Amino acid sequence: xxxxxxxxxxxxxxxxxxxxxxxxxxxxxxxxxxxxxxxxxxxxxxxxxxxxxxxxxxxxxxxxxxxxxxxxxxxxxxxxxxxxxxxxxxxxxxxxxxxxxxxxxxxxxxxxxxxxxxxxxx
Length: 122
Description:
elongated; mainly alpha; two-stranded antiparallel ribbon; 6 helices; 122 residues
């Protein structure tokens, strides 16, 4: 597309957007919303409050859930992992772990196979 054609297309879009904006200016709903915004900003300034304060004040669901949370039981935590003890029957070496990310245990599983090492669980 040539620069002139691109310029004309943008010019046309701009004209359409300006026409749309002019039609919105005469909309009564928009005027009411703008008036409300101005009054709200004036009140916020008068009482030295920010938008977050207004949202917190008006958010009923957050207030009721915070009240209910103090009465309800605390949130369930993840169950603590069980300590597993593996004993290598060939060397007699012991490995205690709560997870599968133990360096020696991984080496055993590579060398002897995962099923074999799991059979060493005490």
